């Protein structure tokens, strides 16, 4: 049969698409995909840091994922209510940190050994908590799924351990009734102490 050759170069990112029997193939722009997790950025802490901040205002993403590993506190907090998450549905202003701060209806779960305790609250501080007081030897991390659009959903699962003495897997599941504005900003901080270490990676998932 006839052999048809395509001699065009196309453009960067295009794919070669068959035109069927007897028709020369052509370069086409690949269809936009959805649902794949895309890496956005990393923040690494190696000295005392008050809080970690992420801009979630990119509307190309349906929701976001934050993965934190190797986190440590610079000094011991006063109790086990020590990891806080704040979310905003407008610009964040460090001089006025309550402006545009979102409220959530959330359920916290404290899991320590064979003990599980839950509580529900409507507040602007979504918290992870354990029954024991962390120390500078405590290492923790978490995975957070965060909705970036209206009626934002938050699902946080963490693991914390202090040597062979204490361990816990607290979680927080929340829903925010933000019916007018998208979630745009996220802050992770500790109760009255600083982070001394930790790696925080942000990913986005498109619709």
Separation of the first and last Cα atoms: 44 Å
Summarize the amount of helix as a percent range. Answer: under 10%
Number of helices: 0
Mean pLDDT: 87
Categorize the overall geometry: elongated
**Strand residue content:** over 45%
Uncertain regions spanning at least 5 consecutive residues: none
User: Describe the biggest sheet?
Assistant: 9 strands, antiparallel
Please report the total strand number as a whole number.
15
Order of helices and strands: EEEEEEEEEEEEEEE
**Class by SSE composition:** mainly beta
Cα-atom Rg, whole angstroms? Answer: 23 Å
Commentary on this structure:
This protein has 207 residues and is mainly beta. Helices cover 0% and strands 53% of the residues. The chain has no helices and 15 strands. The chain has strands at residues 14-17, 26-29, 37-45, 51-55, 61-73, 81-88, 104-112, 115-123, 126-129, 139-147, 153-162, 166-168, 171-175, 185-190, 195-206. Strands 3, 5, 7, 8, 10, 11, 12, 13 and 15 form a 9-stranded antiparallel beta sheet that branches. The chain has a 4-stranded antiparallel beta sheet with strand order 4-14-6-9, with no helix packed on it. The protein is elongated and about 75 Å long. The two termini are 44 Å apart. The model has no long low-confidence stretch (mean pLDDT 87).
List keywords for this structure.
single chain, mainly beta, nine-stranded antiparallel beta sheet, 15 strands, elongated, 207 residues
């Amino acid at each position: 049969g006839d052999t048809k050759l395509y001699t065009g170069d196309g453009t960067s990112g295009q794919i070669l698409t068959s035109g069927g029997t007897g028709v020369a193939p052509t370069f086409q722009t690949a269809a936009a995909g959805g649902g794949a997790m895309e890496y956005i950025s990393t923040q690494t802490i190696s000295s005392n840091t008050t809080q970690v901040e992420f801009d979630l205002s990119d509307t190309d993403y349906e929701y976001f994922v934050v993965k934190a590993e190797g986190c440590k506190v610079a000094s011991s907090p006063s109790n086990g209510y020590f990891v806080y998450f704040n979310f905003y549905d407008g610009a964040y202003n460090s001089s006025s940190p309550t402006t545009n701060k979102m409220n959530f209806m959330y359920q916290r779960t404290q899991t320590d050994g064979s003990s599980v305790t839950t509580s529900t609250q409507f507040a602007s501080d979504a918290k992870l908590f354990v029954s024991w007081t962390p120390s500078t030897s405590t290492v923790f991390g978490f995975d957070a799924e965060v909705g970036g659009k209206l009626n934002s959903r938050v699902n946080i699962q963490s693991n914390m351990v202090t040597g062979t003495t204490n361990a816990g897997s607290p979680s927080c599941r929340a829903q925010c009734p933000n019916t007018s504005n998208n979630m745009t900003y996220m802050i992770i901080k500790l109760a009255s102490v600083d982070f001394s270490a930790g790696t925080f990676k942000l990913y986005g998932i498109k619709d």
